Predict the structure.
Amino acid sequence: DQQVKQNSPSLSVQEGRISILNCDYTNSMFDYFLWYKKYPAEGPTFLISISSIKDKNEDGRFTVFLNKSAKHLSLHIVPSQPGDSAVYFCAASAASRDDKIIFGKGTRLHILP
Amino acid sequence: NAGVTQTPKFQVLKTGQSMTLQCAQDMNHNSMYWYRQDPGMGLRLIYYSASEGTTDKGEVPNGYNVSRLNKREFSLRLESAAPSQTSVYFCASTALGGVNTEAFFGQGTRLTVV
């Protein structure tokens, strides 16, 4: 059973607009959440993270929002740029239990000119 | 600073052959991971190691074995490769497991089993 779900396989957004990528999780023990970006033929690279004690974390153009009651998080990219075209993975861990980091299936983001 | 290094980058195996994927990190990280990436399936955890001498199963451990040789190295072995193990394999490491820290990934090993 999937513990981290990214239900949108792909998303297309106009350059300059806001990109919103969504992620849901089922394990209430998860207490740390991360977003990774992946280009073809490369390993994933860390983008931004959020602890369960917060509901928002911002880093430049990237903001992650966490809604614990809904077990939902989202990544906002604004403004979207051509270099943002990539696959984005949501990940979660339950640090109090073990060292596992579980990933979702990813969302492919296309930034349109 | 190389980060996480995986070898080989590409490999073709015949069904039933065995091989070991190597991974080494030079960041003095405690935790190491092996993932596989398949189309439409995202990154699935095969095995992980919280520290030298310990290993634990992830989401899809069947058909694989691992060895945490020392703090730097974490290898993944396929004893009898099957076409279903055709995938891109990624090794990763973190300083303190999932605790408030990011994972660093290698460049991946593209494995084809024919």
